[in-house]
């Protein structure tokens, strides 16, 4: 039996997500140090928090919280969007709405426990239920663990961004 349980969260839970998002940010920094400089922990959370506030105001957005005892150890956030508002419509045949897994975070001590897979499975089920069975998600190219998880679940590369950041 896993040492965690999953529940549905909402706007009142946003502040609790800060440390888990910062853990994702640290994973980005570790995965691709050649893209430095990175924003501070405070800045990454300020920007991400504002995004979560907007998304949780939208219908059909789902926030899942994973806890071990009284400690938040992971979360996932997904939402549907009109395919015409995406980069998908001019290339692939999909339904009128496509889902996006916006965030998936599992603290390092709980990685490999099946928690990430379970969060992803439940987010996918939700998106299917709200009419967005076609799903996109993003992962940093150097985050091999996340890429393996997503590929095991059937995700395949579709679009590649190349970046040239000057830090100015």
From TrEMBL:
CDD domains: NAT_SF. Keywords: Acyltransferase, Transferase. Pfam families: Acetyltransf_1 (PF00583). Its EC number is 2.3.1.-. GO terms for molecular function: acyltransferase activity, transferring groups other than amino-acyl groups. This is Acetyltransferase YpeA. Residues 22-168 form the N-acetyltransferase domain. The lineage of its organism: Bacteria, Bacillati, Actinomycetota, Actinomycetes, Mycobacteriales. The keyword Transferase applies. It comes from the Bacteria.
């Amino acid at each position: 039996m896993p040492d965690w349980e999953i529940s549905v969260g909402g706007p009142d839970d946003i502040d609790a997500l800060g440390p888990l998002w910062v853990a994702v940010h640290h994973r980005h920094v570790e995965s691709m140090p050649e893209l430095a400089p990175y924003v501070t922990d405070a800045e990454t959370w300020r920007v991400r928090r504002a995004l979560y506030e907007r998304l949780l105001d939208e219908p059909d957005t789902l926030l899942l919280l994973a806890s071990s005892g009284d400690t938040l150890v992971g979360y996932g956030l997904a939402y549907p969007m009109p395919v015409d508002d995406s980069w998908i419509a001019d290339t692939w045949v999909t339904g009128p709405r496509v889902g996006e897994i916006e965030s998936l975070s599992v603290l390092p001590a709980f990685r490999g426990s099946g928690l990430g897979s379970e969060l992803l499975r439940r987010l996918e089920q939700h998106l299917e239920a709200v009419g967005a069975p076609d799903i996109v998600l993003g992962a940093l190219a150097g985050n091999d663990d996340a890429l393996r998880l997503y590929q095991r679940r059937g995700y395949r590369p579709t679009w590649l961004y190349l970046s040239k950041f000057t830090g100015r």
